[in-house]
Amino acid sequence: MNKMIFQFSLYGFLKNLRFFEAFLLLFLKEKGLSFTQIGFLFAFKEVLVNVINIPTGAVADIYGRKKSLIFALSSYVISFLIFSYSNSFAMLYLAFFLFGIGESFRAGTHKAMIFDYLRMENRLKDKTLVYGETRSWSQRGSAVSVLIGAAIVYFGSGYKNIFLYSIIPYLAGVINIMLYPSYLDKKNETGSSLKEIFRHLIKTMKKCWQSIELRHLILQSTLYEGQYRSVKDYLQILIGTLAISLPFFLKEAPERKTAIFIAIIYFALYILSSYASKFSHKFLEFFNSEKAAIRTIMLITAVLLLISSVGVFINLTWISVLSFIFIFNLQNIMRPIMTAQYDNLSLSEEQATVLSVESQANSVGIFFLAPILGYLADHYSLAYAFLLCALVLLIYLSTTTSTAIFKRQTKDSPVL
Q1: Residues with Cβ < 8 Å from 285, sequence gap 6 or more?
Q2: CB 19 within 8 A of CB 143
Q3: What span, in angstroms and rounded, lies between the C-alpha atoms of 64 and 180?
Q4: Up-side HSE of residue 147: CA atoms within 13 Å toward CB?
């Protein structure tokens, strides 16, 4: 690992030291929020990201990517402060607002910097390998993060203080970005006016729509990432239910007992995910193309969601937890493969914007799905939420397969 790839990996490691992440849903439930209210909070954040994501990608391409990342990390820090001291639903909306600003300015920008570096080093053939390596360090950061977060909760600091502790690695992340070489800023010196930004934005959006391959890739990402990001935090609730039902640590209070099990399960999950991401290029070798690998992952994920739904129905929560562990690992195999596909289909100077288009499309999926899943969880069962996600993926896969077969048969049919 050379110096620059080390810095890329360090960025991912520090960024994922979100000590609160494995406890966010539990924190919000402790505030007295229903699953439906939580769904609307997540949807609000995604609406914000949806509105400003693509312009911020264009800003990163034109004004400089280092500046965008530093601004993003700073916005996160302020949101952590508000989360910690929030005492009303309105303050939580403000915290999610600033968190969404951070997500918008960060989305796609760092990936574009990695690919630019590989292009300059004439190593584009290694993009899945290198991005998988840097992403594996992100997952290691998450593994360390959950242990620290669980320790903070276990020793009595509570859910709210884990936001304050999360500020420290993010400030270190700002310093790391400041030390990136200036050539990775990829600032467009030919023009930086508002008019230039929107010209660049419209041009890239047109390409995303007119390119059939890009359009299909973005749709796949919307369906897959939309359901994954909408449902993944329910694992915290499953672990909490499992922790209470198991005959271990019987003398511990429920919150401390849940912290222990979250630490154990999430640590194992993130360690496994780091290897899944690192060796995603090996997974890809089993298939003829990235397209086949992506569709296979979507199918397996749908089956696992069905299994997790059954696990909740029959009150065998451990089945659902195990299914989610596999789903997390599949997502970490998927991201390097899908991100490499975006690099194949876009030019260097538009990559941050294209990846922001993808992130915006994902936000649309979450905006519609998160409140529905929250409503199903509140009024029926988590099983129905998982079932809906599985059906979305299966309907897409069956529809696109049928369309492909029809087109192939039409093409092969003799002309009368």
Answers
A1: none
A2: no
A3: 12
A4: 10
Could you give the count of Cα atoms lying within 13 Å of 339 in the half-sphere of its Cβ? 31
> Can you state the percent helix, strand and coil of the chain, rounding each to 5?
85, 0, 15
Measured distance CA(335)–CA(121) in Å, rounded: 23
Domain limits for position 269: 3-405
pLDDT tens digit string along 319-345? Answer: 999 999 899 888 888 887 877 777 777
Model confidence, pTM: 0.69
Q: For residue 14, is it within any domain?
A: yes
Q: Say whether 1 sits in a helix, a strand or coil.
A: coil
* Total domains, the chain: 1
Residue 74: predicted pLDDT: 92
Predicted confidence band at 411 (pLDDT cuts at 50, 70, 90)? low
233-242, 305-314, 359-368: range with lowest mean pLDDT: 359-368
CB 49 within 8 A of CB 107: yes
In a domain, 410, yes or no: no
Planar angle of CA 260, 40, 30, nearest 5 degrees: 35
Total Cβ atoms within 10 A of residue 193: 9
Task: For residue 188, tell me if it sits in a domain.
Answer: yes
Taking a C-beta distance cutoff of 8 angstroms, is the pair 133, 1 a contact? yes
Could you report the per-residue pLDDT of 240-298, keeping only the tens digit for each? Answer: 888 877 776 666 777 778 888 888 888 888 888 777 777 777 777 777 777 888 888 99
One-letter identity of residue 59: V
∠ Cα 158 164 169 (to 5°): 125
b/e code 135-168 from CB counts within 10 Å (16+ = b) = bbbbbbbbbbbbbbbbebbbeeeebbebbbbbbe
- Measure Cα distances from 301 to 14, 296, 325, 393 in Å: 28, 9, 11, 8
For 21, which DSSP code?
G
Nearest to 262 by CA among 237, 279, 285, 283: 237
For residue 416, being part of any structural domain is answered with no
Q: Give the domain CATH number at 213.
A: 1.20.1250.20
Displacement of CA 295 from its chain's centroid (Å)? 18
